[in-house]
Amino acid sequence: MTAKKRGEKDTIYLMPHTHYDAIWAFTKEDYFHINMVLILKEVVELIEKTNYKFMIEQTFLLEELEKRYPEVFAKIAKYIREGKIEIADGEYPMADTMLPEGETLIREVLEGKRYVKEKFGVDVPVMWQADSFGLNAQLPQMYKKLGYKYIAFRRGVPKRKPSEFLWEGLDGTRILAHWMPFGYRAGLDLTKLDESYDKLKDLAATTQILMPSGSGVTAPQPETSMAVAAWNEKKDVEMKIATPVEFFEALDKEIKENNIKLEVRKGEMYSGKYSEVFPSCCSSRMWIKQELSEYEGWLAYCERWSTIAYLLNNPYPSEETINCWRKILYLAFHDVAPGTGMDEGYDEVRHFRGFFNTEMTTRCNRVHTQVVEAQSETGFESDETHIQLLKMRGYGDMIVFNSLSWEVTNWIEMDLNFDRGKIVTICGLNSGDEEIDVEVLKFARYDDDSLRYARIGFVPTVPALGYKVYKILEREPKRQPYDPNFILERGNTIENRFFGVDVDPSTGLIDVSLDGRGETRERICSANELVLEEETGDLYYHRATLGTPLKTEKGEGVKYGSFRVENFGIEKSPLRRVINVETDYFSLRWPYRLTEKMEPLIWRHKFLECTKKIIVYRDIPRIDFVTIIVDRHPRARIRVRFSTDMKSSTYACGTQFGVVSRPTDQWHYKPKGGWVEDPCGTFPSLKWFDYSDGRKGLTVIHRGTPENEVRDGDIYLTLLRSVLMLSSDGRMGPAIPVPNAQELRRYVFKYSIYPHKGDWWAASSYKQAYEFNCRLDAMQLREETKIPLNQSFLKIEPENVLMSALKKAEDGDEVILRFYETKGEETDAKITLFKEPKEVRVVNMLEEEDEGVKKELKCEGKKIELTLNPFEIVTLKLEI
Q: What's 183's DSSP letter?
């Protein structure tokens, strides 16, 4: 970096603002009142009287202001157009960037920027990440493709100096970045501007000094203009009341004119060295993370199939989809998803459950019906002569839907209802020449012994973003002569062609080994051990005084308590083995000394009940877990442990649109130099994380339980934390009791492991993670339905290119297809559609044509070919 020229004068950009929290220590209504009545009304009056300027962050607040105080809104709109008020960030609400899906983060900006353009006719060039708890590694690419030129942020930087640098994402995209060394309060105290300037100047890369003057829900200071005037009378360094874009444009100009080579920093901003990122909030109020993950997956599913139905000449549910997205965008807010607010703030989030449960059932049924009807004989047009059109019998035939962009083989369960006398038994399923086994999970019969109802489970193979129709067989399915799949038991060992599972009935724990049989198998891990730990922390931090767990299922920990297996059994079917374990934790047993000699006779103080299902499939290389916990322990962290003998200094985590590397054994690391937030070893992940030694590995897959740690070869997945205070020491916020955060309730956790050879890259761990999270769906067909046996509407090859979105364009009749490369390698991709597109254009994430995203495409019939850079995200606009 070129040094500043001697004699150059600095320019200070004092930037009045307030940080808006939708909820946190106050309720949503409290924050609306404070921000609208006590802040924004005052801002308007100051601008009318003085040379005051102001920055507003989120359109969620402006949208509500427009409804409640239209006169204030009209004045703000005028000042935005005049440049006296700037909207920076511009998201709907300011999202947490580590926990939501990447697609959710795109929609936050898309929704916010469209509102700003419509209401004020301006763009938002500055991303202002005032308070998100760390920034994910793909944001430089996302922000550039969302129309931002610059980013200012507060948390997660790994290096203090200089405060300006180029931030590079996983794909190599760079964006000009400013880190706020003293947060967004550097210029809040107008009596200490000298002190703030000296500190900021020492860290700045140029003569342009940004000095934010505000805080969370802080009212504007009427004396600001006088303070700046007094400064300029006494100092030879100019101070301006400014907005973020003024600072960044001057910064950009100086860099270019003086050929200043800024430092390049790569990857995620998730370091606690200079500012807190609160990694423990990844396990605070875990139900919110679970529901966010569930709703994101559901809406992506509905959006994809609504788009297919739209392309088959059905109306697209635009308003309904926007309404659903807005609820998810609120869930993704940076104090909602982390769960770091007081109890009352989450009442509205709880109400979303009823809405989404109803909406999920209605939308899925409707869109499935639309696709089936459009694919029926009268509405189906195809030049594929090999597709069979069969008249369905209507008393048990079913259609299975796959929402992923590759062919999927996975477990599915569905309910079937029958007319009297139609079906007596279900022995298998067939689709054309394919015949597969089925497991009948529940059933009910008429008095003539025919089936009235059945819940079945099976493992279909369904085309990429498509469907397959299956018919009920009342005879045993034909066996393939060279079928490599099998599942069998040898004593307490379950084996399939992928791995062996040894079960310990006394603990319910399993050991997993790869390949071979008996002693020739290579051990991967001891799996699914509950670890009950002391919790003395709060919503921001896990804390414990003990150097050991309270108790583990293997017996480690405090001597007094213990886990006890109450019931154990294994269910068998041709398709899988289900290990059922019921375990309770007692805080006291007697005798509690000499336990190796004396069996416990008395058990007291049962504070934890646990029911586990461990599912080993014949045809699927995963082991799935369903763990139900009824928690009555008010001060505990509950984790599940997978113990390995592998050694590596890093492990891989799924993140938004890619994969990042994280350090292991951070719990042991005691940094020198006084970090603001000492490393604790826990990190967030999206869908999966993987630990391997290069020769073998274990991928842990989850649905909405993001917190993980790798320590001493052991892999931990946090299930929940029970805390009583928002901030126990009053440092991160007010010391507010949060009794609901004790999590004294019933929880259901679903997670999976994928043992494999090699590392995550060779094993394509992301693929198993998506298949576990993006489940197959099915419905029973009506009588006399005539439909092709199978159909793929969209396929993307190879499988390291993953679809992120398929939706109708925000404007116009085109369709938006977004996908990304996830292995970190240049890839030639091929997209196969079910209809030939008239036109295909590469657009940015705002769905606009943009010179910065242009790519060469080869379009031939129904196929589109292009080359993706490592971790590149591409958005296509298709006219079909």
A: G
Distance between CA atoms of residues 472 and 781, nearest Å: 12
Report the DSSP pairing between strands 264-266 and 164-168: parallel
Element (H, E) at 298: helix 286-311
Q: What percent of the chain has pLDDT over 90?
A: 89
Q: Is the pLDDT of residue 641 over 80?
A: yes
The two tokens of residue 416 are: 């079937």
Two tokens, residue 759: 């590392």
Q: How far apart are CA 294 and CA 379, in angstroms?
A: 33
- Section 374-388 average pLDDT: 50
d(CA 56, CA 391): 60
Could you give the maximum distance between any two Cα atoms of the chain, in Å?
99
Radius of gyration, CA atoms only, the chain: 29
CB of 701 closer than 8 Å to CB of 771: no
Position 230 scores a pLDDT of 97
d(CA 564, CA 388): 56
- For 233, other C-beta atoms within 10 Å of its C-beta total 7
List for the chain the helix, strand, coil content (%; round to 5).
25, 35, 40
- For the chain, helix (H) and strand (E) counts, in that order, are 14, 48
The answer on pLDDT for 448 being more than 50 is yes
- Backbone phi, then psi, for 14, in 5-degree steps? -80, 120
Which residue in 163, 166, 168, 167 sits closest to 208, CA to CA?
163
pTM (2 d.p.): 0.95
Distance CA 165, CA 150 (A): 11
The tokens describing 798, both together, are 């190879």
Partnered with residue 624 across adjacent β-strands are 615, 752
Q: Measured between alpha carbons, how far is 305 from 519 in angstroms, rounded to an integer?
A: 48
Q: Where residue 485 falls among pLDDT bands split at 50, 70, 90?
A: confident
- Are 503 and 510 in contact, with CB atoms under 8 Å apart? yes
Tell me the pLDDT tens digit for each residue of 544-596.
999 899 999 999 999 999 999 999 999 999 999 999 999 999 999 999 888 88
Instruction: Please name which of 750, 724, 751 lies closest in space to residue 738, comparing C-alpha atoms.
Output: 724
- Would you tell me how many other CB atoms lie within 10 Å of the CB of residue 795? 21
Decide the pairing of beta strands 150-153 and 174-179: parallel
Q: What is the model's pLDDT at position 836?
A: 96
Backbone angles phi, psi at 92, to 5 degrees: -65, -75
* Mean local confidence (pLDDT), 380-392: 40
